[in-house]
Specification:
The chain crosses the membrane at residues 15-38, 50-70, 90-116, 128-148, 160-189. The chain is an alpha+beta fold. Helices cover 62% and strands 9% of the residues. The protein is built from 15 helices and seven strands. The longest helix has 29 residues, at 160-188. It is elongated.
Length: 435
C-alpha cells in the first residue's frame, strides 16, 4: 500500500500527533541505549548476555507460536479498550537480565513475529505504536532499577530492598504502557467512554501476573536456566486465561450495542434476586423503550438506526451506577438491573438517563459518505423494585413492562413506577400507574 494510503493518516489530528511523537521518542531512546552500550564504562555486550538474549527470544517465539490461535481470536475481537497480551512477560524478564539496547530488539522481534504469524494483514501503525509503548515503558522501568541501585545485570531481587525496587519497576512499566495506550484510544476514538478506554480490570491483573512471572523467569534464567522450559506450561496456561473472559463477554454481548444480550440478561436477573433474598436487599429494574426509533430507521435507514442505538446504549451505561447491568432485550428496548437500589435510587437513575437521551446528539451515516446529526432520542421508562412490587423474576419484569406500557400511552418520554401486581402471575394488566 502506498504511504499516502496508510490508515495512520486517517487518525484525528491530535491522535496522529500523539502516535508519531511516541514513535519518535521510542526511536530516540533506542539510539541512546545503543550509544550507551557502545561507549559506556562497560562497553559492548558480553557473551552471557547474548546467550540470555537468544534463550529469551527463542522462548518468546515458542510462546507466541503456541498461543497463535488464542491471540488471533483476541485480536479480531479488539475494540476501543486496551488489547492486553503477555509479551510483557519476556520483555520484563529481559529487562532484568540484559542492557536496554538488547531489550528493544527483543520487543521489536516479538511484534514483528506476531505481525506475520498472528495479526496478519492489520493496521501496521497500531503495532508500531505498541512496540513504541513497550520501549518507553521499559526505559522508565530501567530508570527505576538504576535509581534503586540495580545497575549491573542481572538485576534479579536478592534481598528485601531489591525486591521492592523490582516491584516498583514492574509497576512503573505497567503504568507507563497502560497510560500511553489509553491516551491513544481516547484521542483516536473520541466517542469512546473512559470506562471503555480503561478496559477490563481482569485483563490488567493478568498483565500484572505476567510481569511477576517475568521476574521468576529472569531469576531462573540467571541461576538455573534449564528450569525455564518448565515454566512455559505455566505461561501458556496463563495465556489461555486471557481468552476465557473474552469468550464469556462475547457469549453475553449484543453485537450492535455492546450491551448484555437477552440470554445473559435472563440468567443474570434470577441470580441477583436470589442474592437479594439472601441479603434481605432490593433489586431495581428499569425497562426503557425508544419513542421515535422507528422514525430514525424509516428516515435515515437501518445502518443509521444501529449507530443511534449504539450511542443510546453508551449513554445509558454512562448514567448507571458501578455494578448495574444494562442489556438490550428487544429491537429498541433496553433494560437496566440495579442491585441494592431503592425506588428513589431507581428513579434518580431513570431521570438521569431520560434527560441525557432527550438531548443526545448523534452523528450518523446515511447514504454513501453523507452524514447527518440526530438530536434527541427520547425514551419511555417503566420502573419496578423487588420485593416491593414482585416476589419473582417474572413478576418483576411484568411489573416494569406494564409500567412501561403506561408511560408510552400517557405521553411518552416519561417515567412510570409499578405498583404491586395481583397474585395471578402471567396475567397481563395495564393497571400499574405511578409517578
Amino acid at each position: 500500500m502506498p504511504p499516502r494510503q496508510w490508515k495512520l493518516w486517517s487518525l484525528p489530528a491530535a491522535a496522529l500527533g500523539y502516535v508519531i511523537a511516541i514513535d519518535l521518542i521510542a526511536v530516540t531512546i533506542t539510539t541512546l541505549a545503543v550509544r550507551a552500550t557502545m561507549t559506556g564504562p562497560h562497553a559492548g555486550v558480553t557473551s552471557s548476555e547474548w546467550a540470555a538474549f537468544a534463550v529469551l527470544a527463542a522462548a518468546s517465539t515458542l510462546h507466541l507460536e503456541s498461543a497463535r490461535g488464542i491471540e488471533r481470536r483476541r485480536e479480531m475481537a479488539a475494540n476501543t479498550s486496551p488489547h492486553t497480551n503477555l509479551k510483557c512477560l519476556w520483555v520484563f524478564a529481559s529487562l532484568l537480565l540484559l542492557p536496554l539496547s538488547l531489550v528493544v530488539p527483543l520487543i521489536a522481534w516479538s511484534y514483528l513475529y506476531s505481525w506475520f504469524r498472528v495479526y496478519g494483514r492489520t493496521v501496521a501503525h497500531r503495532k508500531i505504536f505498541s512496540t513504541s509503548t513497550y520501549v518507553l515503558a521499559s526505559a522508565a522501568a530501567a530508570a527505576v532499577l538504576r535509581a534503586g541501585g540495580l545497575i549491573a545485570e542481572p538485576r534479579v531481587p536478592t534481598s528485601f530492598w531489591t525486591l521492592l525496587v523490582v516491584i516498583a519497576a514492574a509497576a512503573t512499566w505497567w503504568l507507563v504502557n497502560y497510560a500511553l495506550v489509553i491516551g491513544a484510544i481516547l484521542l483516536a476514538s473520541p466517542e469512546a467512554t473512559a470506562r471503555e478506554a480503561l478496559g477490563e480490570l481482569s485483563d490488567q491483573l493478568v498483565v500484572c501476573a505476567g510481569l511477576g512471572l517475568g521476574v521468576a523467569i529472569a531469576a531462573m534464567q540467571s541461576s538455573y536456566p534449564w528450569v525455564v522450559p518448565v515454566l512455559m506450561v505455566t505461561v501458556l496456561a496463563l495465556h489461555r486465561d486471557l481468552l476465557l473472559p473474552q469468550y464469556q463477554r462475547a457469549a453475553g454481548t449484543d453485537v450492535k450495542t455492546g450491551l448484555a444480550n437477552p440470554s445473559y440478561w435472563a440468567s443474570a436477573v434470577p441470580v441477583e434476586l436470589a442474592r437479594a433474598e439472601t441479603l434481605r436487599s432490593t433489586v431495581g429494574l428499569l425497562m426503557l423503550d425508544l419513542d421515535k426509533f422507528k422514525e430514525i430507521n424509516d428516515t435515515y435507514g437501518h445502518p443509521a438506526g444501529d449507530q443511534a442505538l449504539k450511542a443510546v446504549g453508551e449513554s445509558v451505561r454512562a448514567e448507571v451506577r458501578q455494578g448495574d447491568l444494562v442489556a438490550r432485550v428487544g429491537g429498541d428496548e433496553l433494560a437496566v438491573l440495579l442491585p441494592g437500589a431503592s425506588e428513589t435510587e431507581v428513579l434518580e437513575v431513570a431521570e438521569r438517563i431520560r434527560d441525557r437521551l432527550a438531548t443526545l446528539t448523534v452523528s450518523v451515516s446515511t447514504t454513501g459518505t453523507q452524514k447527518t446529526v440526530i438530536t434527541g432520542v427520547p425514551a419511555s421508562f417503566g420502573a419496578a423494585v423487588y420485593p416491593e412490587v414482585a416476589a419473582t423474576m417474572d413478576q418483576l419484569i411484568l411489573a416494569a413492562d406494564n409500567a412501561l406500557l403506561t408511560a408510552k400511552r400517557t405521553g411518552r418520554n416519561t417515567i412510570v413506577t409499578a405498583r404491586p401486581l395481583p397474585p395471578a402471575v402471567g396475567e397481563r394488566t395495564d393497571q400499574p400507574v405511578g409517578d
